[in-house]
Design a protein that fits this description.
Length: 213
């Protein structure tokens, strides 16, 4: 599982001072505080992640340990902190789709694509998409993911299905899109599983007919 980017969650750089981290936390905590959004489970989830990030980055020892751990997991990806938005997530999905389309479908690294899809569909990213609630972006985002998932196995799709359903939960049309894609991959998996048996049976039948004739 990929490690959370606490700097990105608080929208500060890894070089941020303690004062900058505190100021960023206060701003985001005020924005997403449950008292300002009664009954909103999405805002509550984001608020919890912000608090988790602050609890680590505001503690010098915890921050030092965290920095050491992300250094092991490629510190380069943490250097430039860009606030994640629905639009930026769509752009990431488009880039992944481009990578998939340029790859050989018979020799593509399915585990790599699956891991990238899991990252795109993390709880934090789903919260951002659902909170912004831009239906056009969500629809485009899903369409990119469908293309990315096309060369993956049905079992990969099953693992991602709950996240796809959550993302489509606010639109009946999107729910139908997810359902149709799921049924398509299910039929495809069934055909892949039994096509060799079907070919064998057809070949056997032709041999029997040739023998009888």
């Amino acid at each position: 599982m990929s490690q959370k980017n606490y700097y990105q969650l608080l929208q500060v750089s890894p070089q941020a001072t303690a004062q900058e981290i505190k100021a960023a936390y206060r701003k985001l905590a005020f924005k997403y505080h449950p008292d300002r959004h009664k009954g909103s489970t999405l805002n509550e989830a984001v608020f919890k992640e912000i608090n988790e990030a602050y609890s680590v980055l505001s503690n010098p020892e915890k921050r030092k340990f965290y920095n050491a751990s992300i250094a092991v997991n490629n510190y380069q990806q943490y250097k430039r902190v860009v606030p994640v938005t629905a639009q930026s997530l769509l752009q990431y999905a488009i880039k992944l789709r481009s990578f998939v389309e340029k790859s050989n479908p018979f020799n593509i690294n399915q585990d790599l694509v699956f891991t990238k899809l899991q990252t795109l569909l993390s709880n934090h990213h789903l919260n951002i998409l659902l909170l912004e609630n831009n239906k056009q972006i969500i629809q485009q985002f899903l369409q990119q993911l469908f293309i990315c998932m096309q060369p993956l196995s049905f079992y990969h799709l099953v693992a991602l299905l709950p996240s796809l359903q959550q993302l489509a939960s606010n639109s009946e049309g999107l729910q139908q899109d997810v359902k149709r894609f799921y049924q398509h991959k299910k039929r495809e998996a069934f055909w892949q599983r039994y096509k060799l048996l079907l070919v064998f049976l057809i070949t056997l039948l032709l041999c029997v007919l040739m023998y009888l004739l």
